Amino acid sequence: MPDRDVLIIGAGFSGLYQLHKLRELGFDAHVVEAGPQVGGTWYWNRYPGARCDIESIGYSYSFDPELQQEWNWTERYAAQPEILAYLEHVADKLNLRTDISFDTRVVSLDFDDPQDMWTATTDSGATITARYVVAATGCLSKPLLPEFPGLDDFAGDVYWTWDWPTDEVDFADKRVAVIGTGSSGIQTITAIAPTVGSLTVFQRTPTYAVPAQNRLIAEELAELKTHYDDFRAESRLSVGGIPCGDELPPFFDDLDDGRIRSELHMRYDDGGLCFQQSFRDLLQNEEANARAAEYVRNRIKDKVHDPAVAEKLTPRSYPIAAKRMCVDTGYYEVYNQPNVTLVDVNEQPIERITEHGIRAGGTDHEFDVIILATGFDAMTGALAAIDIRHGAQTLRDKWSDGPRTYLGLMSAGFPNLFTVTGPQSPSVLSNMVTSIETHVEWISAALSHLREHGLTRIEPDVAAEDNWVNTTNDAADMTLLKQAPSWYMGANVPGKPRAALPFVGGVGTYQQILDGIAVTGYHGFELV
Ligand code: NA7
Fold this sequence. Notes:
The chain is α/β, with parallel strands linked by helices. The chain has helices at residues 13-24, 41-44, 65-70, 80-93, 183-192, 218-224, 228-237, 257-270, 286-303, 307-313, 381-384, 395-398, 432-452, 462-477, 507-519; strands at 4-9, 29-32, 100-101, 106-112, 117-122, 127-135, 157-160, 175-179, 198-203, 209-211, 326-328, 340-344, 350-353, 357-360, 363-366, 369-372, 387-390, 393-394, 417-419, 458-460, 525-527. The chain has two domains: 4-38 and 96-143 and 377-527, FAD/NAD(P)-binding domain; 175-372, no CATH class. The strands form five sheets. Strands 1, 2, 3, 4, 5, 6, 17, 18 and 19 form a nine-stranded mixed β-sheet that branches. A hairpin with a 2-residue loop joins strand 17 and strand 18 (393-394). Helix 1 runs parallel beside helix 13 (432-452) and helix 13 runs parallel beside helix 15 (507-519). The longest helix has 21 residues, at 432-452. The radius of gyration is 23 Å and the shape is globular. The protein binds ligand NA7. Ligand NA7 binds at residues 140, 146, 161, 179-185, 202, 204-205, 324, 345, 350, 373-375, 487, 492.
């Protein structure tokens, strides 16, 4: 008999809810977490200015009405410490820590056929057996560590945004470099710019950032709490896992110019990622996309005083929203400070890190501090980091040309192994917490179904998986996603196969597909 019914890997938003849900259903579940405490992404990414770019009222659990009523988010977009405090509160309230092993990393998983169980080996060499494994390992949890030659020679301080020190770092009067201008980079840059001695930003691809319009939300939240369930129901059926209001009809539906301009203006000024839902077909229609992209480009031009710097900051080579957009609070304005310099690494490639700084394009820049905000091996990285085997087959080999899953939940040949927000599910194209709840609830119901019917094994059919892989690729082909060199496509990791990692069909559609599959007795899965 296995040690546990279910082994859950990871104690972030996914793993915590998965543990609670399974315990509620009477399963013997246990979590293994690499970090020293709960939080996952929100434990590790504690860099200055770290903040969620999905609104806090949606980026939170809906499963517990009492929790929903008692917790008060202070701001429209919660900062990292508040999200971590929320997850700690949830862990305490639901008494979750007793079933979590901290500071423990799963390094391999091996499936035993006759017994229908997984053996997990941890970094201490200990083993745990479980009938089922749920990988709640996160989509952006395996950091990308670009090999800048000479990094070890640097005499100053090096910080990675994904592993920031717990003690406060003082940048006063320091000469600071930041490499990377994704969400982590631009949040860090904006937060430290007021105090640094000087700041030099090394940018490879300019981002489309729209304003957050962050604010205190005490009154809004009190009002929402009178009908929170309606908001949650709407979230689950929305495109992105959080309601964005009515978008404009498809671009070609006779939209007059004034209406287009006022919609873009209204969305931009309202703030946040709902901007990308200005038109229903913004990610499908090149003309609609170009119109929204041009709007943001013009706003960048308005904000940055030096036209040459503004031009460098302006994205022109890829469609808006085809690469993860950023949400900012004064990011572009940072470049109006006299002590801030922007280096375009396409013009001045980083050649090496030296003892005193960074050599780029033949110029030596001297620094006291280098901050690396270079992103993640998204969606597949955390799974590939575990040696997952069934007989002679490894998941790494199976996915060597790109992930192959059924519904982003399981992969054929690897029975009893579920992924929460796995590749080929909406995940990173959505409010993660909505997508996490959908998966946790679906997986939990599937495990209850197996138990009720005396079954011990579930695995997708190869044909169903092939169909889903084709559906995912076909859906991505109908969009402009492939036109951007983004981590959505695996493009940021050298040697990673290019494949659409998320399912672009939207949260609501996906939820209906999952519900339909469960109702039809788990169509496409083999239950033994
Ligand atoms: P991102 O969005 O992947 O950003 C990483 C940044 O680092 C991005 O600007 C990269 O440029 C840059 N990068 C990566 N490698 C290099 C090298 N070798 N040289 C120069 N620049 C480099 O990760 P984040 O952590 O900012 O955000 C992750 C998600 O968290 C975000 O999308 C939200 O969902 C929240 P590139 O664009 O690849 O050219």
